[in-house]
């Protein structure tokens, strides 16, 4: 049932990457429980604007959980308390009247803060350009049905490919590791026959790049899997490890 | 001035091959001397930037988001069409061509659409090679499903995330070229002006959204892939940042804007439920494969859906269109939903909603099969509405979703400005007055992977371009214009937020230029838009500074453009005295309330030229010539 609630927000405000930030308190009143979390922030921002104050900067775009642009740590949890949900798909019906909600940006050395809740996630692009692709030029592909792929394999690849690159896994991990993100891409491509020729090279290059960018290691905390809005399984990290070890041991690529 | 579409002569099926042979080629060693700017990284922009770089051109690629992987193509759910005929159900290039032309209510160019159908098959081949995990049958071959406006099963899909997977494929190819040094990425940049020198597009001026710095970039050609303007309605299924600014600035620099009144209202979206609402969410058309649309037979029936017996339900699409049923094209489905609601048969508190019911499909196929097909869509629906579509029917209502109108381009996808290419949703070319489902992905990728790599070479090899740098006065002038406008926006200092004004603009358009239009309403809308625009420049409140990450300023610039563009949209709607596809003027309808075209007087593309802020735009007409299909009243009965 729709109802209206009043809540208190403690929001991380930071003017720029090298400026000291801190929490500011705002009161959001008469918030419909049908609102999405970001619509609630819109309402707060409208009021801040009318009051002559600087609205809260936050990234968002599609508002249907697929672009991966939005994300913040809500009461200590990436994208908030609901499982398998991006921040834009989190609705206020999951909060109660009188709640205090703490909102912080992703915190990781590899994701410097741009402003308020906005962070720079270009490190993810760097990992992909190290090898997260299949080297085919446009124009030379054989007929799409020339290589059958077992349905289970295609589905497993799709499970991994569902990653939206939001960075919640990094924010959730005590080591700020990007293993789930990297593992998902390595898995997707290693599972498919089209991705096999470059699998070894890819695993080595992407993992090395990840380390170089100051992401931490995986110590099996499983926080990433718990907070991933697309529920990407940590079995993808296991597959990353297998691909990496295999590449290091037996491959002709070094 | 005569608009020349440069359609090659000869039989339809041979035009593209012939044209490719006739286009001049750029020697591989020379390609690396050419700089190409691609604005946008969606399916069209990403695929174009990657493919052009693979050929050896040096590409600068710009996007508004923090990463090229986030362009709004990512949100496309249902699928991508191709004429593979893997299902052996009678499909062919010719049939895909015909369905698309007919679906567009005979308002697109035959030659462009035929080419689109031809290259559709190459797209699927390429995407599979890129590692896109399309849905497959148990035997390992690719699966298909059906979409509106077609009686064959030709839609390839990756669960309900086809756009995401195709976009990430294009993105991966793009990243490979970035790694190779062929593409330089410029994320978080917004194009604010285009630079035209000697009649040729030679560069752009962008704002760095983090620092606020205005940057100039020069090139041999500019390719705009900046998407559509459905957000002119404020509420739409588009992403929040989707806007008209890039194409509108090009229009103001002389590029013609074609058919702006062709907007698509998608029939299956989650209905509006509050004034705070920031966007609408689409429920993929693929759901109409298994979902049945109905309303109660008795107007005002307030019983919950499962207490309404079969005999008192009106499955109005199945009744009225027995051969296509729930899979009629989008414009037809939307108008019928509106008609039912206008009769008082709408459901929910607002009365602006109809049911999309899966009970029969679940009974027939089992919950598991339905879950496998639509699981993520059902989950998304439940998250937003807190209602479980496995147990209760979905409630849906039409919403602004896509635009067929865009910058005018010729067969080479070049605008009337030399060197300015426009692709994907940003151009007007392939969908006529209504786009069929699963055709947007096809068109974006066709343009980027398989058309522009050939046609841009023809342009570059066939024209002389003086050496220029960003020191050229034209860049200074554009930079000055952009800086001045930004300063103006920040100095209005009024009392209304930009979102509030945008919301009002949306209401005006939805009311008078939405699913149905009439002359009186359009005239009224035009006046209201002018007044609102005036208010914006007097009373908008844009906080912050220009030298900062300032999202309020970004939005203000986009809304200022929407306020100008909206008037063009209404002018175009007023001029088109017929109904066709998504443009429905109440004065022109058949006895059965279907759109009635006027082929004698309106079988043309309406292309508008900007004449100045205080003057009406000038209309140019490109006649549409149909040599291969017979124009008929569309029937889906």
Notable characteristics:
heterodimer; A: Ubiquitin-like (UB roll); 5-stranded mixed sheet; 7 strands; 33% helix; B: 637 residues; alpha/beta; Methane Monooxygenase Hydroxylase, Chain G, domain 1; 5-stranded parallel sheet
What number is the mean pLDDT of chain B?
96
- From the coordinates shown, what is the CATH architecture of one domain in chain B? Alpha-Beta Complex
By DSSP (H or I, 4+ residues per run), the number of helices of chain B equals 17
The CATH topology name of one domain in chain B reads Flavocytochrome C3, Chain A, domain 1
Q: Report how far the terminal alpha carbons of chain A are from each other.
A: 60 Å
Distance between the termini of chain B: 42 Å
Q: Can you tell me about this structure?
A:
The complex is a heterodimer of chains A (254) and B (637). Chain A has 254 residues and is α+β, with helices and mostly antiparallel strands. Chain A folds into two domains: 4-104, Beta-grasp domain (Ubiquitin-like (UB roll)), CATH 3.10.20; 121-249, Alpha-helical ferredoxin (Fumarate Reductase Iron-sulfur Protein, Chain B, domain 2). Chain A has eight helices and seven strands. Chain A has helices at 37-50, 122-129, 151-161, 168-172, 179-191, 199-212, 223-227, 235-249; strands spanning 4-13, 22-32, 73-74, 77-78, 100-104, 113-115, 118-119. The model of chain A has no long low-confidence stretch (mean pLDDT 96). Chain B contains 17 helices and 21 strands. Chain B has helices at residues 15-22, 28-31, 43-55, 93-103, 110-129, 162-179, 245-252, 316-320, 330-342, 359-365, 367-385, 440-462, 473-490, 498-513, 519-539, 551-575, 599-602, and strands spanning 35-39, 58-62, 80-81, 155-156, 183-186, 189-197, 200-208, 214-218, 221-224, 257-258, 263-269, 292-296, 313-314, 354-357, 394-403, 406-407, 420-422, 496-497, 540-541, 604-609, 618-623. In chain B, β6 (189-197) and β7 (200-208) form a beta hairpin. By secondary structure, chain B is an alpha/beta fold. In chain B, the strands form six sheets. Chain B has a five-stranded parallel sheet with strand order 5-2-1-9-17. In chain B, strands 11-15-14-12-13 form a five-stranded antiparallel sheet. Among the domains of chain B are: 266-400, Succinate dehydrogenase/fumarate reductase flavoprotein, catalytic domain (Flavocytochrome C3, Chain A, domain 1, Alpha-Beta Complex); 473-598, Methane Monooxygenase Hydroxylase, Chain G, domain 1. Chains A and B meet through α1, α2 and α3 of A and α3, α5, α6, α11 and α12 of B.
């Amino acid at each position: 049932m729709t109802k209206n609630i009043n809540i208190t927000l403690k929001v991380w405000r930071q003017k720029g990457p090298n400026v000291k930030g801190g929490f500011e308190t705002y009161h959001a009143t008469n918030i419909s429980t049908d609102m999405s979390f970001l619509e609630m922030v819109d309402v707060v921002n409208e009021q801040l604007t009318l009051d002559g104050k600087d609205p809260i900067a936050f990234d968002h775009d599609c508002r249907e959980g697929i672009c991966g642009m939005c994300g913040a740590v809500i009461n200590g949890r990436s994208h908030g308390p609901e499982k398998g949900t991006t921040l834009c798909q989190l609705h206020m019906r999951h909060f109660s009247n009188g709640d205090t909600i703490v909102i912080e940006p992703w915190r990781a050395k590899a994701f410097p803060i741009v402003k308020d809740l906005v962070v720079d996630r270009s490190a993810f692009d760097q990992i992909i350009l190290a090898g997260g692709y299949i080297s085919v030029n446009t124009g030379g592909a054989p007929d799409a049905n020339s290589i059958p792929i077992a349905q289970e394999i295609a589905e497993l690849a799709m499970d991994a490919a569902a990653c939206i690159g939001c960075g919640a896994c990094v924010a959730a991990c005590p080591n700020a590791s990007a293993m789930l993100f990297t593992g998902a891409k390595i898995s997707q491509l290693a599972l498919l026959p089209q991705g096999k020729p470059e699998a070894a090279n890819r695993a080595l290059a992407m993992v090395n790049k990840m380390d170089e960018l100051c992401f931490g290691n995986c110590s099996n905390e499983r926080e990433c899997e718990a907070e991933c809005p697309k529920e990407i399984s940590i079995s993808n990290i296991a597959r990353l490890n297998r691909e990496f070890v295999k590449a290091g041991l037996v491959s002709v690529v070094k | 001035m005569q608009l020349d579409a440069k359609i090659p002569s000869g039989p339809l099926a041979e035009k593209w091959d012939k044209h490719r042979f006739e286009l001049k080629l750029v020697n591989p060693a020379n390609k690396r001397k050419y700089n190409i700017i691609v604005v946008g990284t969606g399916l069209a922009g990403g695929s174009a930037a990657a493919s052009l770089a693979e050929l050896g051109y040096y590409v600068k690629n710009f996007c508004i988001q923090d990463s090229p992987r986030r362009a709004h193509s990512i949100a496309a759910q249902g699928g991508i069409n191709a004429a593979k005929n893997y299902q052996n159900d009678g499909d062919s290039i010719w049939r895909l061509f015909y369905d698309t032309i007919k679906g567009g209510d005979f308002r697109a160019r035959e030659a462009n659409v035929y080419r689109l159908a031809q290259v559709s098959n190459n797209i699927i081949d390429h995407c599979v090679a890129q590692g896109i995990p399309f849905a497959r049958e148990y035997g390992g071959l690719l699966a298909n499903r059906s979409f509106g406006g077609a009686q064959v099963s030709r839609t390839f899909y990756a669960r309900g995330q086809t756009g995401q997977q195709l976009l990430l494929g294009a993105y991966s190819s793009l990243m490979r070229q970035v790694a190779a040094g062929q593409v330089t990425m410029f994320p978080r940049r917004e194009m604010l002006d285009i630079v035209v020198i000697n009649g040729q597009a030679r560069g752009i001026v962008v704002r760095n959204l983090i620092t606020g710095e205005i940057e100039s970039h020069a090139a041999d050609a500019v390719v705009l892939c900046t998407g559509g303007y459905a957000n002119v309605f404020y509420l739409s299924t588009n992403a929040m940042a989707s806007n008209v600014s890039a194409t509108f600035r090009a229009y103001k620099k002389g590029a013609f804007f074609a058919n702006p009144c062709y907007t698509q209202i998608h029939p299956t979206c989650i209905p509006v439920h509050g004034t705070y609402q920031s966007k609408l969410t689409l429920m993929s058309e693929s759901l109409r494969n298994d979902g049945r649309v109905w309303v109660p037979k008795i107007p005002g029936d307030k019983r919950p859906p499962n207490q309404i017996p079969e005999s008192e339900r009106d499955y109005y699409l199945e009744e009225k269109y027995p051969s296509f049923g729930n899979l009629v094209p989008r414009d037809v489905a939307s108008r019928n939903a509106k008609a039912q609601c206008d009769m008082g048969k709408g459901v929910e508190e607002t009365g602006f909603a109809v049911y999309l019911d899966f009970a029969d499909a679940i009974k027939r196929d089992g919950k598991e099969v339905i879950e496998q097909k639509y699981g993520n869509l059902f989950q998304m629906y439940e998250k937003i509405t807190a209602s479980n579509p496995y147990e209760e029917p979905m409630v849906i209502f039409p919403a602004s979703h896509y635009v067929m109108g865009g910058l005018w381009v010729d067969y080479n996808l070049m605008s009337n400005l030399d060197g300015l290419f426009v692709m994907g949703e940003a151009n007007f070319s392939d969908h006529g007055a209504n786009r069929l489902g699963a055709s947007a992905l096809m068109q974006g990728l066709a343009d980027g992977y398989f058309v522009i790599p050939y046609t841009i070479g023809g342009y570059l090899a066939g024209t002389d371009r003086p050496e220029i740098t960003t020191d050229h006065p034209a860049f200074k002038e554009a930079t000055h214009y952009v800086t001045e406008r930004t300063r103006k926006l920040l100095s209005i200092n009024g009392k209304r937020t930009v979102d509030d004004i945008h919301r009002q603009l949306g209401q005006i358009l939805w009311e008078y230029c939405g699913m149905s239009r009439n002359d009186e309403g359009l005239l009224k809308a035009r006046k209201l838009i002018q007044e609102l625009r005036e208010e914006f420049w007097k009373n908008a409140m844009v906080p912050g500074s220009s030298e900062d990450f300032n999202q309020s300023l970004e939005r203000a610039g986009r809304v200022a453009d929407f306020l100008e563009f909206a008037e063009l949209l209404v002018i175009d709607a007023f001029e088109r005295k017929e109904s066709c596809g998504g443009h429905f003027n109440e004065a022109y309808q058949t006895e059965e309330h279907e759109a009635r075209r006027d082929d004698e007087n309106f079988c043309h593309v309406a292309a508008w030229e900007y004449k100045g802020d205080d003057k009406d735009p000038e209309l140019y007409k490109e006649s549409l010539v149909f040599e291969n299909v017979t124009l008929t009243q569309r029937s889906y009965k």
